[in-house]
Design goal:
five-stranded antiparallel beta sheet, alpha+beta, binds 6-diazenyl-5-OXO-L-norleucine, 41% helix, 19 helices, single chain
Length: 607
């Protein structure tokens, strides 16, 4: 089935191909050799899916679209303060080649006009102009996701005819904006404008900005997160020059155009858009490019000022540990305590991108629940991202709840850098930081221990075989015989006792002391804990039901000692005393029934 997005782009391309307005740029002679009918549209998602139509592979020079990326590089290399001392962020409202300098400092008003871009090219890291050029081309290549090169003919053509830019470069030198050799910086500027790209490249550059500075396919970080919003802000206010006002009004996405016929538009957290059509309007913007963005913005609702999502939508299911307790097998005493108090552990399933408004709503819901809560587990599985201020608000709430002896922990963040980054960097200095668990089971067990207090303290409790659940109901004389044949095994912390897929060796393990975790392997090589067992519990008993290979991995969580029964010994004893097999099978089926009930309870809680 053709994707509706692809069909939409194909249709839009066909409709706008009839638009013949605009002229090729010719003040750089080489640019006038372009084929005016060239036209392509590309869109890249945050996970790197590409939709493209038209002359997608047609190469052209990037021209002014290089400017936000070189500005980004200068910010990363020299920092906000230093760069702000050389180039402003105010829209000039003038044309791209206007000599818009701050009357007092001589600083160009913004880095999107030629003056600002020439200054910016001189600011990137590098001891020599060649080193600076290598820095520029490497950075732009990271944004595209492949090694880039330049169109020597266009470069030559511009360098030979760029008299206005040469004058601007000397003025910037005159005002001390450019420290080094101005012509060398200007040549680097001409080179950056002559970088060869295609429409899909542009969409990836835009998508990398939309994806918080990380390339959606290569996963490479092209720009520190904190600079992304600064680059997008300058693109929004200055990227389309003296058309910026109408652009934000009609289209409402940070964008940048180039006289090579390219336009990029960025929808933060969602899409990167690239368009190529060399017919330009008098302001130097691609005519078809502008129309494509108008249609996309209107038809897909991409205007950044359109009503943001409903804050409440960020909060999905709220349920308790009474519905979804941890998968460990607590002692009967702990179980009865948890039955009375587990409702005080609340799961809150969060969704989408968490901004201040959605986090405000989530915190208000937690405050409503606080009177009857001891722990909140924020399940982040469906969370796409979080803003810095929202993370700060959540950390603040976490500490305030801690002040009321209510624990707030996170689960299932799964290494999503953007979320972990802000939750870590917005934790107050003297704070030990937020707690995050690989999955809800580990999170709820921690919370259960939190409300169980000393009750749950792992003790060096040692139990005998008589206390083991699987042997409950066994007559003492039979138990004595079992005691005789059971061997004692000790395991160090993190030692693997059984491994998934291992051939069954007929042994059944009865935990005398310590705790083990039962894990099943996941696709990505990780493991999912399915339960944890303590003194009096057993594992490996499925061998008694004819299992031939071990179905899970068992790892010692701490010092563990087990009494081990060989299946052959059980068979031999059971030949004389069938009661042994009856008691074992009865307890196994009772235990399996309990596990089934709890699994159904979990599924019901998550449904
Ligand atoms: O410096 C110039 O004039 C060109 N290399 C770049 C200008 C440009 O792309 C303006 N954008 N619309």
């Amino acid at each position: 089935m053709q994707s509706p997005i692809q069909a939409y782009l194909d249709n839009l391309h066909t409709r706008l191909s009839s638009l013949q307005d605009g002229e090729l740029a010719n003040y750089i002679p080489e640019l006038s050799k372009a084929d005016p009918s060239w036209f392509s549209i590309s869109l890249v998602t945050m996970d790197g899916a590409v939709y493209s139509t038209g002359d997608s592979a047609q190469k052209f020079t990037i021209q002014s679209i290089s400017k936000p990326f070189v500005y980004a590089t200068a910010l990363a290399d020299r920092g906000v303060k230093f760069v702000a001392g050389k180039v402003g962020v105010e829209p000039s409202g003038d044309a791209f080649n206007s000599i818009s300098l701050n009357p007092k400092t001589g600083a160009p008003l913004n880095p999107m006009i030629n003056a600002g871009a020439i200054a910016t090219a001189s600011l990137v890291a590098g001891e020599t102009p060649e080193a600076q050029w290598q820095r520029i081309i490497k950075s732009m290549s990271t944004f595209v996701g492949r090694d880039l090169g330049i169109d020597e003919d266009v470069y030559r053509s511009e360098s030979d005819t760029g008299f206005r830019n040469r004058a601007i470069a000397w003025m910037l030198k005159n005002f001390g904006i450019i420290d080094g050799e101005p012509m060398a910086s200007l040549e680097n500027y001409f080179r950056q404008c002559s970088v060869l790209v295609d429409c899909v490249d542009l969409a990836f550059m835009a998508a990398t900005l939309a994806n918080g500075g990380v390339h959606p396919r290569t996963g490479q970080r092209a720009l520190p997160l904190e600079h992304v919003e600064r680059v997008l802000s300058v693109m929004a206010t200055c990227g389309m020059y003296d058309f910026a006002g109408s652009w934000v009004y009609d289209v409402g996405m940070p964008a940048k155009s180039g006289v090579g016929g390219g336009i990029i538009a960025v929808l933060p957290g969602r899409f990167g858009i690239g368009i190529f059509s060399p017919r330009l309007d008098p302001k130097g913007n691609s005519v078809r490019g502008i129309e494509v963005c108008r249609h996309l913005s209107r038809d897909f609702g991409l205007h950044v000022f359109s009503q943001a999502g409903e804050p409440g939508m960020a909060l999905g299911r709220v349920y308790t540990a009474a519905q979804a307790p941890s998968k460990r097998q607590p002692s009967p005493e702990m179980r009865s305590y948890l039955n009375d108090h587990a409702h005080r552990i609340k799961y809150l399933c969060l969704h989408g991108y968490l901004a201040v408004d959605s986090v405000e709503y989530i915190i208000r819901r937690m405050i409503d629940l606080a009177a009857d809560s001891s722990c909140f587990i924020l399940d982040m599985h469906q969370v796409a991202g979080i803003s810095e201020s929202a993370a700060r608000l959540l950390n603040d709430a976490r500490l305030r709840f801690a002040g009321d002896n209510i624990a707030l922990v996170f689960s299932r963040i799964h290494g999503r850098h953007a979320i972990e980054h802000f939750l870590s960097t917005t934790s107050p200095k003297n704070d030990r930081g937020y707690l995050s668990f690989e999955d809800n089971d580990l999170a709820v067990e921690w919370c259960e221990n939190h409300i169980l207090g000393d009750f749950a303290k792992p003790t060096s409790e040692r139990v005998s075989l008589a206390d083991c659940v699987l042997l409950r109901g066994l007559p003492p004389e039979l138990l004595a015989q079992v005691e005789k044949v059971a061997s004692l095994r000790r395991y160090r912390q993190d030692e693997s006792i059984l491994t998934t897929g291992q051939a069954c060796d007929g042994r059944v393990f009865f935990i005398e002391m310590g705790h083990v975790s039962v894990l099943v392997p996941l696709k990505d090589g990780a493991h999912q804990r399915i339960t944890s067992l303590g003194p009096g519990m057993s594992f490996g008993e499925m061998v008694l039901l004819g299992q031939t290979t071990r179905s899970a991995t068992v790892v010692a969580d701490c010092e563990v000692s087990c009494r081990v029964l060989e299946a052959d010994d059980i068979d031999r004893l059971a030949r004389d005393a069938a009661m042994l097999r009856i008691v074992l099978l009865e307890n196994i089926s009772r235990d399996m029934a309990e596990k089934l009930r709890r699994a159904t309870q979990w599924i019901a809680a998550l449904a």
